[in-house]
Structures
1.
Amino acid sequence: MTQTLKSSIRALSSNCARFSTAAGASKTASKARHLLSISSLSPAELGYLVDTAAHYRRLIKRDSFSTPSKQLPLLGHTIALLFSKRSTRTRVSSEVAINYFGGHPMFLGKEDIQLGVNESLYDSSRVISSMTSGIVARVGPHSDIVGLSAASSVPVINALCDTYHPLQAIADILTIKESFKTLPGLKLAWVGDANNVLNDLATACAMTGINVSVATPSAHPVDSSVFANVRETASVSGVTIEVGHDPLAAVKNADVIVTDTWVSMGQESEKQRRLQQFAGFQVTSKMASKGGAKDTWKFMHCLPRKPEEVSDEVFYSDKSLVFDEAENRLYAMLAALDGFVIKQGKLE
């Protein structure tokens, strides 16, 4: 073997070693910032996202979202939509928001890819993030969204997991702000199941000065670890957090009454038992009046809704904000894409 050939082989080996080291580092080092829950934000950052959502709502309502002088920031970019569960509001708001920014939404349902089935979350996340500019994920266990974000080289936005639902919370705070103008000092009463929507909404309320009173059936208590963090946030903002099992006590002096589905996707086999456990928790005008809610109280529900959760009288009344709330999911997604994909987590 000639000396020149030996030198070439040594140089090639050295380059391969450097490449291997760099690749190994990139496997674990991700500078992307992700939106996994409301608790991953500061109060100021949550306020920024709510205000940004309101800004986009105004632009779209005036039909002035884009102008000739403003380029579409996601033009030429693809955002992956990883959905392990079917969806209405999340899918529509995600695809529409990405299109508003000029991007291409790539929907990947559970029948389309190997996510967590024949391929690990880590492998899937590395592959998908290498070809896209962001990931919007609607998954099952919170560990799935954590796993995706840990391996992703691009921002991951949690569009729902079994523990958190940050986009819904942003939309809900926007909805309340639109109705009441100012947030500090309001009282929100949650009547129903202790779930992912409640977890992020309670955190968002604690950050924005809204007092919270929760009533759940005793068989479905709040997540103690989540509410420990909610109370810690509330202690800084001066917000009151009350947790119990009496709907009438919860709605006393409430400005907003909120509920959610009692039988979530995947819980269909438990329906009859859960309906028995939630007896007496249906939101009605009689409940609000008997419990002493304020005359100006409003109702919210993130949908889909079933009649046993709230009466038609309330759901379709002028007290109901549910359809504004649903529409605000679009503006919440626009704000999330703006803050985490376009501005790379620099929420200012």
2.
Amino acid sequence: MITSYNFYFCHIEIYEDYVKAIMKEGITVLPEHNDVLLLITEKHFKNKPFVYITHRINSYAVNPTVYLETAKIPNVIGFAVVSADHRQKIQTKLEKAFFNKEFKQFDTLELALKWKDQMIKKYSDQKIV
């Protein structure tokens, strides 16, 4: 891990090629929360591709229009939701409709990280061509 941030609505960890966010219990994720993500991406991922991973260990709500804004961040190449909860899997299917980039749900963080590696490699391979 490079660094981490603790905000009123989430805890974010920054790694070389991904962000891992854990939202706080009971919050509602709103489009304005993307302002924080934008600042972090400018600071840590300037012109560098990365994957956003949300580890859903707490119960909270998501306004799905947040993904319309997240998708505008040019170097976000994928979004992963980590949760084995059946309700979260259903919610993720709805959220995916609002995000026009790669968006996947995983039962474990390990599976999400393997997918992240594939996404980074795929992006790198496309840039070479």
3.
Amino acid sequence: MSLTLFALTGLVVGCWATFLPESFYSDFPGVRPGYVSVDGPYNQHLVRDVGAMFLALGALTVGAMIVRTTTVTRLTGLAWLVFSVPHAFYHFTHLHVFQPLDQALNVVGLSALVLLALVLVVLPAKVSGAGGPARSRVP
């Protein structure tokens, strides 16, 4: 389940930012006022780079879903954790640009991504169903 959530996040956000950067800048997350546009001027290069990074994380996650080993699941969780911790920290220290509801949504959503990534690192087989040959499992 966690891998599915990360795969969808990576692929949806990645495609949106990579292929429709102006829409991503103006409209993300799509259900509330633009979260990206309140934080500075539009930069197509930066938005497309962020999209490519999300696509890379999405591709890694899809690979983990196919390979289904504990080691690959842990590495996928680690990659998401390396991204999610500084990303969350930035937003937590810049909440003032958002309305109160959006502040809460940012804290909850970004915290959930950090916690889910941590769970994939610590408990990969129990959360994602990762298995595979015994030689591929990490104790």
